[in-house]
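Supplementary Text 2. Reproducibility record for the structural model of the 527-residue chain.

All settings were left at their defaults, and a single model was retained for analysis rather than an ensemble. We include the record here because the model underlies the residue-level annotations in Supplementary Table 4.
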Amino acid sequence: MDGRRLCRQRRATPIRKRKEKLDYNEIIKRLDSIENIDTGILLELIKIVDAIEAALADLEGNLDNVFTKSKIKDKLTSAAISEKLSNRQELVSKYKREYIETFEEWSNDVITYKNLLKAFHKKTPGNKRILPLLTRCENGLQTLNERRNILNQWQYESCEHEQPLKTALQKNDMEIVIQVNKELGKITAYDDRTAKTYTIEELQNLALKDDNAAQKAMGDYFHEINNPDEALAWYRKAAENGHAKAQWHLGVRYFSGCGVKKDMSQAENWFRKSAEQGDAGGQHGLGGCYLAKTDFVNARHWFEKAAAQGHADAKSALELVSLMLKANYTPQQHEQYLQQEKEKKRIEEEARNKRIADFQGCVSGSVSAGISHTVGLKADGTVKAVGDNSAGQCDVSGWRDIILVSAGDNSTFGLKSDGTVAAAGDNSAGQCNVGGWRDIISISAKGSHIVGLKSGGTAVAAGDNCKGQCNVGGWRDIVSVSARDGYTVGVKSDGSVFRSGWDPANFDADEWRNLVSDYKERQMEVK
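Retained model, structure tokens:
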């Protein structure tokens, strides 16, 4: 049988476009009827395996980034508190059904991939790619099953906001909650006192009538849109009108010097007002003020009150202070410890600034381009990107401390001064799975793969490996790397060359000698 008849559609079709999905059972039947695997059929199998690997990478990325346990619960909880009490249970049930349907569909897909891979393994038992993919299928199914169990067990009655709401009703101490809908780009306010939703304009009118909950919510609103001065002004109004959480906000700002001049007496004053109203944050803050004064007894007293309300940081602080008291830890010892910590931070900051300064001179103005986007490295270690952003390849505005950039077809990579690598954009071949890389001193990306040079002269790679371009694990004594379409090249310290992947124009690495690397050796301190 001609290999081209085994799979009549493009390789990505069975995985990425559900409406044009291949008949997998038909492929397995055809495969079972083939006695000898010729080159044409083998190439078709490789294409399907590539597509399965890309689909599993997408699934794993979604489970790790979008459908984590906490984010599922956050969305259900957000749905619950965003509606009137009478509608909450119905809305939560709707979201649960949608999630479960999605997980069921994904599970069916993974089972299909698993069956295909088993059929391929039976016909090509020497293929080393199959068994790891089967393991990833098993792990994916297990994770999907765990997520389903979480959804099935989650009930609105266990919503973490429900009990505080009931307690607030009993105390007549209700809150207005700012809600940010990032998908719609809207910010609204929900009033637990009346189960009513306000626009920001309506909320401001309420705040101008000296409603302290509305004033505090206005502070939250300006905090959300990054206007710290307005946020502080509204928090102050609400705090002066007796709002406990707003008093805590002021205490935090005076304690840390955020937006105001640091003033420990003012911090203690506002924390105390908040704490005396029973706010756990205020109690924790007041304990922190006493700890800063090395008054461990009073610090423990307020940490205990906050911890009793479930404040996690207060629980940790209470353990620390209790150990100090038990060990007869003196204020002088604590002051010495604080000075040591301060000096340690100063040294770390100096080392960080030195690392940045060492590299800025040689990379300022560095640019790299993909298929339809361009990325540039600025002298301050930030990154600018323009062009096609359909895969998120231009989402680099938050990157900092970057010393080198490199663009793949639809992805972008940045080498940070601490030897780690940032990635954005298309991850269909796993090319953005670089979060665990360490001690990297140079990177190069092309197509759908990236290679990194480590400080010890070894190399790492991620992404498309259909031609073996990521097989660099055995490279040693490398001083420079370069990724190209379908292959990877590394220059050794003796001027010779390593190559992995596709053979361009009968490339003979043995004939290449005495090459000069553009790599300038540096001793990088890694954070």
